[in-house]
Amino acid sequence: MIAAIQFEPxxxxxYSFVIPLYNEEETLPxxxxxxxxxxxxLTGEVELILVDDGSRDRSLEILRSxxxxxxxxxxxxxxxxxxxxxxxxxxxQFASGKAAIVMDADLQDPPEVVPELIQKWQEGYxxxxxxxxxxxxxxxxxxxxAYSFYRVLRQLSDVNIPADTGDFCLMDRAVxxxxxxxxxxxxxxxxxxxxxxxxxxxxxxxxxxRYAGDVKYTFRKSFRLAINSILGxxxxxxxxxxYLGLFSAAxxxxxxxxxLYWRIFQHxxxxxxxxxxxxxxxxxxxxxxxxxICIGILGEYIGRIYEEVKGxxxxxxxxxxxxxxxxxxxxx
Length: 332
Ligand code: UDP
Ligand code: MG
Hints:
There is one protein chain. By secondary structure, this protein is α/β, with parallel strands linked by helices. The protein contains twelve helices and eight strands. The chain has helices at residues 28-41, 59-69, 84-94, 114-122, 140-156, 173-181, 189-195, 219-233, 236-265, 269-274, 277-310, 325-328; strands at residues 15-21, 46-52, 73-78, 99-102, 127-135, 165-172, 200-207, 317-321. Strands 7-5-6-4-1-2-3-8 form an eight-stranded mixed β-sheet, sandwiched between helices. Helix 1 (28-41) links the parallel strand 1 (15-21) and strand 2. Helix 9 runs antiparallel to helix 11 (277-310). It is elongated. It binds uridine-5'-diphosphate and magnesium ion.
């Protein structure tokens, strides 16, 4: 007798925890321990998707051993360091839960806050983001830069991107689907998350210091993210070119009027000195600078258009473990 083939139904987890990491060997065991404590308090199935963003330390080995110990742990390993936002996008594409919870690997997004996020989700919010009330243990300069950046971005952007929010959030499957369909490469997930709309709310928390290791977001990476976010969500810099042009035209007009006035009505020493070479040199430098700024701004946008048009895949994977077959098909 042929036994009926039993297909185990693909179980959809309720919660997908998505955590990108880069060189976090020191924090991973503690992260897993703290998350396990959290998982014990949750009802419903959980998957933990750890995305190795091309780490050079033992992070990947630790992921392999965590996966062996704990079947809830699934991991992807990107073939090189693609950057936090791309690693996060990869993890979100593999998430199959009804809600995705995004966290940093360094325990700066406390697992203890997650039940509050879930509570809001159960109340019917589709995006629940963590908003920092304080940032302990971070340098004064970094805090000041972050503080001003979020406010400048809010001023410039057409989308209402809440200040002082990181990637720490819970997103409903509906939001995830929209996000996963967005093909853009220069991704600023916090902005895209605000852009999609749906019912959104904040949960406030105090941001602790890093559990271990150094900051992986170097100044260069943070700066690039800041530029990406502004260019991705605002055309104000492009408009600046027009304003600068108008301003310099007005300035030139004023100078011409002054010159004419001096020429016709006055013959003072100042007028003589201002005329001729000095004035021309000044005007040339001024206009040259304005033009260079405008070309630079255009260049920034054109550079991004070029990158989007190339349509390269967002990331390349070198290792994937623990996912069901249909999800693994994303490899091709
Ligand atoms: N990260 C990453 N790829 C990178 C840089 C950082 O996946 O190229 C991860 C890092 O491991 C951490 C998160 O992004 O989980 C936030 O990085 P970090 O703690 O260094 O930045 P900060 O807390 O200062 O925003
Ligand atoms: Mg951190």
